[in-house]
Amino acid sequence: KNILFPSRLAGNKSPLEVVKSMKYVKNTKLIVCGSGNLSNQIQKIVHKLDNVEFKGYINEEELIELFSNCLAVIYVPINEELGYVPIEAGVSGKLTIGSNEGGLKDTIIDNKTGFLIDNPTPEKIADKINFIIENPKIAKEMGQNAYEYCKKFHLKNTFRVLDKAIEEVTNK
To answer: Of 11, 27, 98, 114, which alpha carbon lies 20 to 30 A from 130's?
Structure first.
């Protein structure tokens, strides 16, 4: 199984740290998909690593296929308010390795639906990747937990929360 990194390839999404983490990982491949101002720099690093595949921009069908066929997803942005990647991963039944900040603390439950990393470095990211490679049953269980947890982000549930909030404000 592969590890998926679907992201805009910009500094605040930490793509260099993710790609560099693969120097410390064996027995799996990282698939990088997305585009951005760091694409050329990432491609140069990828050419030196045999366990990273750079796909660049992909269509929605291919992205859905990659989500469904990966072991886990990595998403370690800086100052991300929400980010859909952990929700997309969860809906696909996959855990997310994420940064312990911002909205990811709402979309990932550490050690249950994925992992939250303080100040992600290539080494810290690699440690989590290696753990899930060595423990595929735990990865699968966490993916199932993520699937159940992400149901709360469904649009119908969001409307229910908004309706309730509006009702409370208008009744004051």
So the answer is: 11
